[in-house]
Amino acid sequence: MKLPDIIIFNPDSYRADVLGHLDNPAAVTPNLDRLIDEGGVSYANAFAQNPVCTPSRCSFMTGWYPHVHGHRSMKNMLKLHEPSVLSVLRRAGYHVWWGGKNDLVCVEKPEDYLRYCDTKFKPDTRYRGYRKAPSLPPDDPRRGAFYGGVMEPDPDAEYHDTDRAWVEGAIDRLRLKADETPLCLYLPLHFPHPAYHVESEYYEKIDPSRLPPRIPAPEPGAGHPPILDALRREYGAARIDEQTWREVKRIYYGMCMKIDHLFGRLMNALKETGRYDNTLVVFLSDHGDFAGDYSLPEKTHATLQDALLRVPFLIKPHAACKVMPGVRSALTELVDMPATIYDLLGIDPEYTVQGHSLRDSLAGDDQEHHDAVFAEVGSRDNDTSFKNLDVLSMPPDSFYAMQSRAALKAHANGTYAVSCRTRDFKYIRRGYQTKHELYDLRSDPGECRNLYGMHAVAETERMMERRLLDFFMTTADVLPHRQDSRKV
After folding, report:
1. Is residue 487 part of a domain?
2. Rounded to the nearest 5°, which phi and psi values hold at 176?
3. What is the per-residue pLDDT across 382-433, written as a single tens digit (0 to 9) for each?
4. pLDDT in tens, 425-454
5. Residue 469's domain is classified under what CATH number?
6. 183-188 and 279-284 as β-strands: parallel, antiparallel, unpaired?
7. Is the CB of residue 157 less than 8 Å from the CB of residue 131?
8. Which of 87, 148, 189, 321 could in theory staple to 163 by disulfide, Cβ–Cβ 3.0 to 4.6 A?
9. Residue 480 lies in a domain
10. Which residues are CB-neighbours of 221 under 8 A, at least 6 positions away?
């Protein structure tokens, strides 16, 4: 029997709360919402294992926590000897079609991609119909908010749209006559990654009166990591008014709406070609985005807020799998994705996977697989390989040059941190500081007031410390399944 086709639809920087079916009245996501009515399951409490693109992808495509093979920087990607969902599927007979960005595997030249996939799609990204928003002048405070603006209609203007081109390429691939070779479409898209910019057709459909309030910058003495203040100073957050942050959020929601639109086009193509029922669909993001929370744009490489870690994670199984469509509330981690795919397909990955299969959850069981979820971020002390040297070639007033300057001292001294998050509490242990973090999520879901060191939560601190120690003991390494000979 032919294995089902697979789609891994992977937008970048998509927060979990921008979904209509998770009760956000400002989110315009009809296609993702429809998936839940048409055989899919949405995990409302799914968390990434790192708030940065590359380490998160390396984690959820292997099923390993970032510390297992040192994947915690932008420039340490999967090597050929490291397994991944893509390599396992190829070995199982899949044609892997890749249309999107990298931030996953180590390549030195374009043809190196063919070590990891059968087709690396390179489209023509030029389109007409929208005019790029004008660049901001050097003294415009919106530069510190990574503001890009709204693209207005202009039939004669040319602009580039990689996400649309990649999805159109995937649709064309689906329309080819199917054969006995199962197909995996891997679509790691760019949106809604900042800069914050979007076409007016999406922007205008976001009702600003429905947008939820942003989490404010913390009050002095709230106990947040000093790097957040350094970033706000470098970005000039004091000059960015509330109207600008609301505009950033509205644009960001429009960017998420565009992702939903592209996802819907792909789902319609599956139905038109008769492939929908026998296709396993996974939609997940690598991390979230501040989008104005804490008076910050984008993300950090040193902090672990839910705004950066809680992400959409939706699965529609193929027809052979039992499923009860709907929303699940159980704590879930992105490392659960490989275990779930291998289990649903009946494939032995031939390596140890640290996540849990969600097969029973998809069938209707909403019991907890995890008593806590974990994430990691940051640099070791004098960790020179952590630095992203690409920033050195960027203009000094560019956003990432500002971000790098603000974080330079902190990263040089060590920013490595690990979080243990339960339903009720989040504990963050910082390797190079004595001031750690503890938040009571029941009364403080925005993580605004650090309770660490207070007598009233001393027992909770000890409990979370022990759980973190247990986590590292049980996930510190993985043994290869193939044993070496001692007789040669």
Report:
1. no
2. -70, 150
3. 888 888 878 878 888 899 999 999 998 899 899 999 999 999 999 999 999 8
4. 999 999 998 899 999 999 999 999 999 999
5. 3.40.720.10
6. unpaired
7. yes
8. 189
9. no
10. none
